[in-house]
Specification:
The complex is a heterodimer of chains A (274) and B (197). Chain A is an alpha/beta fold. Chain A contains nine helices and ten strands. The longest helix of chain A has 16 residues. Chain B has 197 residues and is an alpha/beta fold. The longest helix of chain B has 13 residues. The chains are: A alpha/beta (274), B alpha/beta (197).
């Protein structure tokens, strides 16, 4: 088993993936990127040399590579306090000026956050008025997100979060159990558009009233975070909201002075300048 | 007299702990020398869905206010940092933190192995690693990484631990430099402080 990876070898991998496939991981945070690489080597029983060879000779392998590289560990209603603020303050704030609005889940992973959002909006009685866009780099994970199907063992934690969020029902009312899986009601997803999108290289494709990008940019270095935050600024309507992870911050970035802190604990910001 | 053969080249102290480590940590933080010259980085197992309260509880008697850093926050001398709940916390080469939501390790997030292992990579032989009482093996591998990079390793005397699984895991994986009781760790830190004054 490979114990550690040299920076030179990491660079060989990122360079190959960049030139051959056009994905740029050169500005990913080093420690987690290295752990992901070690994990891929272990899971696929590869060495650095055989990984490079595989990437070079088997174009189909890149999707599998991306799927393992990106971190897809998430939960429904993660940080229940955040969801309460969304329901009680942020969404009502948007509704003051717009009857219908648009949300972007940037880096949606397996879709738990999108599903939490649609359940929240449904309970608020406004799901039909909201257009949701959910994007990720990883096409395999987008398929999972679309299926809105999760292992039943995950539901205990999801239900706990939902209870702490103080939802109106029980999560059980939104899914049926089948073969060890929780299959959510597809109607919840009717206004959601899933699409492949690369935050690093992709352009802003629409204008939004709310962008959520929670615990995605933690895998980037500061320079890349800065670039992506500029894109989010561009992708928001004036007075639109940006939500990032509870341990992320935008105080240091170039566009910081164009945002107002709405909630510092849950890291919700409002665009106040173009 | 310096029985530990210390010097002023160290850049950080990392401390890992789990079940039974809270009182020990509180004692260490309560007796920290004023303007201690190194950052102290804590990775303690904690309730996953209780985000608030822990940092306050640790800070009550601490000489220095304990903080949970944000992602990419610069590491400063004399600060005491605590890994936030439900995130892994790593140290990066630019001397800042980064957070991650990767899979749990040893059923833990934050995992002590990740904080200790990344600190060992960045600080190499300029690191002091301390592992306290705990009920699982997390941290053992991290201590081995520190030792392998030439850092100084200390585990809490197993007989003093409420649960000794954690220090024993480190003792089994590597040649730990010292086993100490909490009071000795306090004295060790005071001794270390003198080298910087």
């Amino acid at each position: 088993m490979v114990q550690d990876i040299d920076i030179v070898d990491l660079k060989k991998i990122t360079d190959l993936v960049q030139t051959k496939y056009g994905y740029d991981f050169r500005n990913y945070a080093m420690s987690s990127f290295k752990r992901r690489m070690l994990r891929i080597l272990e899971l696929k029983n590869l060495t650095i040399e055989s990984l490079l060879k595989k990437l070079n000779e088997q174009p189909g392998f890149i999707e599998e590579f991306l799927d393992e590289l990106t971190v897809n560990v998430t939960e429904m209603f993660r940080d229940p306090g955040f969801w309460r603020i969304l329901r009680d303050e942020i969404i009502p704030g948007i509704l003051l000026n717009h009857k219908s609005f648009k949300i972007w889940h940037a880096g949606c992973s397996s879709g738990e956050e999108v599903l939490s959002m649609t359940i929240m909006l449904k309970e608020m009685g406004i799901l039909q008025d909201v257009q949701l866009f959910a994007t990720d780099l990883d096409v395999n994970i987008l398929e999972k997100a679309k299926s809105a199907t999760y292992p039943i063992k995950n539901m205990e934690l999801n239900e706990k979060n939902y209870i702490r969020y103080e939802g109106k029902k029980s999560l059980k009312e939104y899914y049926k159990e089948e073969g060890g899986k929780a299959i959510f009601d597809k109607e919840l997803m009717q206004n959601v558009t899933f699409r492949k999108h690369d935050l690093v290289k992709g352009e802003v494709f629409n204008k939004f009233d709310l962008i959520l990008c929670r615990n995605v940019m933690i895998y980037f270095n500061q320079a890349l975070q800065n670039d992506v935050l500029k894109k989010f600024h561009e992708g928001l309507f004036k007075y639109g909201y940006l939500a990032i992870g509870s341990k992320e911050s935008l105080i240091w970035c170039d566009v910081a002075n164009k945002f107002l802190v709405v909630n510092n604990e849950e890291k919700v910001y409002k665009k106040i300048k173009d | 007299m310096d029985k530990y053969n210390l010097n002023s080249s160290y850049r950080a102290v990392v401390i890992g702990g789990s079940a039974g480590s809270f009182q020990g940590i509180v004692k260490i933080l309560a007796q920290l020398p004023k303007s201690f010259p190194l950052p102290i980085i804590l990775c303690l197992h904690r309730l996953k869905h209780v985000r608030n309260g822990f940092v306050e509880a640790l800070s009550v008697k601490s000489v220095v206010q304990v903080v949970e850093p944000n992602d990419k926050e610069q590491i400063k001398k004399g600060s005491v940092y605590l890994a936030p709940s439900n995130y892994h916390m790593s140290i990066e080469l630019g001397n800042h933190f980064s957070m991650s939501t990767e899979e749990m390790i040893n059923n833990s997030r934050p995992a002590i192995d990740i904080t200790l292992g990344s600190a060992a990579y960045v600080y190499r032989d300029k690191l002091i690693g301390i592992l306290l009482s705990g009920a699982n093996r997390d941290g053992g591998l991290g201590m081995k990484y520190i030792k392998d990079k030439g850092g100084l390793t200390i585990v809490q005397e197993p007989t003093e631990c409420m649960i000794d699984t954690m220090p024993k895991a480190a003792l089994a994986l590597t040649k730990v430099d010292y086993t100490m009781k909490i009071e000795e760790i306090v004295e060790f830190i005071k001794e270390l402080d003198k080298h910087y004054k």
